[in-house]
Amino acid sequence: MSAAWDVLYTNVHLATMVGNYGELRDGAVAVKDGRIAWLGKAGDATAAGADAAAVHDCGGSWLTPGLIDCHTHIVHAGNRSDEFEARLNGTTYEDIAKAGGGIMSTVRATRAATDEELLKQSLPRIASLLAEGVTTLEIKSGYGLSLEAEAKMLRVARRVGEVMPVSVAATFLGAHALPPEFAGRADDYVAEVCAMLPALAAQGLVDAVDAFCERIGFSHAQTERVFQAAAALGLPVKLHAEQLSDQHGAGLVARYRGLSADHLEHLGADGIAAMQAGGTVAVLLPGAYYFLRDTTPPPVAALRAAGVPMAVATDNNPGTSPMTSILLAMNMACTLWRLTPLEALAGCTVHAARALGRQDDIGTLEVGKRADFALWDIARPADLSYSFGYNPCRGVVNAGVLRQPRVAA
What we know:
The protein has 15 helices and 15 strands. It has helices at about 80-90, 95-100, 105-110, 115-130, 145-165, 185-200, 220-230, 250-255, 270-280, 285-290, 300-305, 325-335, 340-345, 350-355, 385; strands spanning about 5-15, 25-30, 35-40, 50-65, 65-70, 135-140, 165-175, 210-215, 240, 260-265, 280-285, 310, 375, 395-400, 400-405.
C-alpha cells in the first residue's frame, strides 16, 4: 500500500504568511503530487491519519513560502559597467546616450546574441536569486524591440523554467524604449508593438504585458493602446509607472484592473486611490532607487494607509539595478523606505504572488497550494531583512522536491 504523502518536512518552524507571519512553531508540512497536502504541529502529523514515503528532518530551521521576484529584466546580453565607471568619472548620461550607450547598448548586445548565448549569460544571475530562496521569477522582454528579438528573449525566459528549478512568469515589454529604426516615430512603433503581441501570444510566450509610461518612455495615450491590445487577447497588464515623474500611469493601469504598478517614486494621491479601487499591487524597487542615487522615495506610508499591497523585487537589469539578491532588496526596502520586516517578507511572498496574478497557487503556505518553500537558518523571520551580505538559506523546495539539501539527516 502506497503512502498517503510523498514527503513530510518536519522539525521546522513555519511562517505561513497567512495573517501577518502566520507563525507555527514546531511544525510540519506534508506534500503530495507537488502540492501542500497538510500542515500543522509536528506532533499532530501521525494523528492526521497519513504517513509519508519520505521524511526530512529540517533541524529546527524556519520554513517560508518560496520567495518570488516579481519584477526583473534578468534575461539580457552584455553589461554596462563601463557606463557606470564613466558616470562616476564625470561623463553625463546624455553624453553616454549620444555615444550610442544606455539602453541601446543592451539592445544591440541582446539582438546580436543567439538563444544559447543569451541563456548562458543570464543563468548565473538567476542562480544567485535561486540560492536565496527564490522559487518564482518574473522575466520581462524589452531589450529586443523587434518581433524577432522580443520572441527570442521570451523563448529564453521559458527555457529558464525548463533548465532551472524555478517557475517563470514571462512578461512582454515591447513598449520599453524607442528603437533607433523608429527614431521620431513613436506612434508607429507603438502600432508595431501592438502588432507583435498576437504572434507572441499565439506561441505561448506571454503571461502579461508591460510598458514604460514616462516622459522618456511612452505617453499615457500610447500606453493605453498597448493595454487595449493586451485586453483584446485576454492578457493581464502591469506598468512601469511614476518612476521619474507623475504621468498618471498608476491610474491608467488600475483602470484596466492591472496586476501591478511598479517603481512609483512620484506616485500621487489620485494614483494611490485608483490602485486601491482597482486591486493593483504596488511593486517597490529599491535597487534602482539606490543605484540611481534617487532622493524621492515612493509614498510608502500613504500606500500603507490606503491598504494597497506592497511587493518588493530586485528589478535586475544592466542599466539601473544590476542586483541579484532578493534579500538585499528586502533590507533596502526596510532601511531606505521604512518598510517593516513583515512587510518586506510579505512583499516577496504573498503580495509578489498577487503582482503576478498567482495568489491562488503560491505566496503562502496553505493546503492545496504549490509546495514551493525556502528553509532558513534564522532565529525569527525578521532576520531575513535584518542582515545583508549573508545568505541563511539552507534548502529550497520546488513543487515538493528538495534542492540545496543541507537539512539534518
